[in-house]
Amino acid sequence: MTPDATTTTITFDDGAAYERYMGHWSRLAGQTFLDWLAAGPGLRWLDVGCGNGAFTGLIFDRCAPAAVHGVDPSAEQIAYARTRFAGRPAAQFEIADAMALPRPAGSVDVAVMPLVIFFVPDPPRGVAEMARVAAPGAHVAAYAWDMTAGGFPYDVLWRTMRDAGLTVPMPPSPDASRLDVLGELWRGADLADVEARRIDVERTFADFDEYWATVLNGPSVGRTLRALDSAQREQMKSTLRAALPADSAGRITCRAWANAVKGRVVARASAS
Length: 272
Prior knowledge:
Blueprint: H1 15-37, E1 44-48, H2 54-63, E2 67-72, H3 75-84, E3 91-95, E4 108-114, H4 123-133, E5 134-145, H5 155-163, H6 179-188, E6 191-205, H7 208-215, H8 222-226, H9 230-243, E7 252-265
Parallel strand pairs: 1-2, 1-4, 2-3, 4-5
Antiparallel strand pairs: 5-7, 6-7
């Protein structure tokens, strides 16, 4: 097999496909993350990199927010999120860059960045923007798959593809997902009470066919997998099947972990 040179970036242009590929994983880690964050009810939330709204839904289900404002650079993802939350005025979505958030200073009580920090070209700037829009005492937090240590949910697939000589695009800032780097980023933004932890999750697929159908439309690798000829595709499926042992019922359980960080905005000194 030869590398697919056309697949060099990760694009998110199909909200439904993303839901199947990553939405379930996002909620698995997000539940533990929100319990750990322990933000109270009635708060104003900013969901940075909200994607198709998978994590936004968790905020509504578990945190009783006063409002959630989701931002994401993908027009397709924002369109999907708006459809998902149609009729809920407390949920608003906007196309925006994490490094230039369209919110005034001190306007939110909780700023979160779920599974996004490694996509931000300048992570310190992204964290600084969250801190800027957060009110004094507000939570600023994130969680991210550990991209450099094998924590990504489809790490086995990625390794199998690379071994076969296929290109697997990486986000621009994978090191930002490391536990120690997340702590440094938060402290570098002058956030107080910084804590970091690892979140372990697992997901079970009914069988290999369900797994394969899920990854075939994955935003990072789906195009490459679909471009394989029939012989290459069958070889890839055979190698991957061997790397993903099934139980006696044919189910495949995959494990992943995310690193999480949280801190609070300190009161800003008033101008003299």
